Amino acid sequence: MLFSYLEERFGIHEQTFVDFDLFSKRKSWWLLRKTANAYLPVRLKVSQVGLRAFDKVGKYLKPTTRMIQLFGHHATRGVHQVDESGLQRLSRGESLEIDGLIDEGFVILRLREQVLGLGLLAQGKITSRIRKYELNQISLS
User: Fold this and answer.
1) Which residue in 70, 85, 77 sits closest to 115, CA to CA?
2) What pLDDT, in 10s, does the model give residues 90-101?
3) Is residue 107, in this structure, part of any structural domain at all?
4) N or C end: fewer C-beta atoms under 10 angstroms in the chain?
5) What is the extent of the structural domain holding 29?
6) Domain count of the fold of the chain
7) Cα–Cα distance between 60 and 106 in angstroms, integer?
8) 81, 90 in Cβ contact below 8 A?
């Protein structure tokens, strides 16, 4: 279900995650690379493992920023190219108005070839879902 969402929304093929397992806890899912050397005892209660990959936010399934930064370069759709002025607007908490063919929902934000993270597209406007601190750390050179 989770990987099929990535394929449907962003064009990131499910096959990309064949070497990973998912673990869930409450409203989050964690991604862990499969290994033949890791045996989890049945009675072991895991509190946290791997990379937090998805969160359930209201009725939406939201990939985490780290997940998108690591795998977003595989995306073939649902991507919005941001230029330097757009990045500055997002870092000030402003939205970006777009005229595009992207369906409403989460979009991958990319500056040139660098995957920044996610934005939310609603009513023709994208708002950032990336921490302001992280946006301010992005190099424009």
Assistant:
1) 70
2) 989 999 998 877
3) yes
4) C
5) 2-136
6) 1
7) 9
8) no
First to last CA, the chain: 38
79 residue type, one letter: V
Is residue 141 assigned to a domain?
no
In the predicted model, what is the mean pLDDT of the chain? 86
Closest C-alpha to 69, from 133, 136, 137, 130: 130
CA–CA dist 129, 119 (Å, integer):
5
**pLDDT tens for each residue of 89-130:** 998 999 999 887 788 889 999 999 999 999 999 999 999 999
Name the pTM for this structure.
0.85
C-alpha angle with apex 55: 78 to 136, nearest 5 degrees?
65
- Residues 2 and 27: beta-carbon distance below 8 Å: no
| Residue positions counted in the chain | 141
CATH number reported for the structural domain that contains residue 132 in this entry: 3.10.450.720
Place of tokens 């990319």: 110
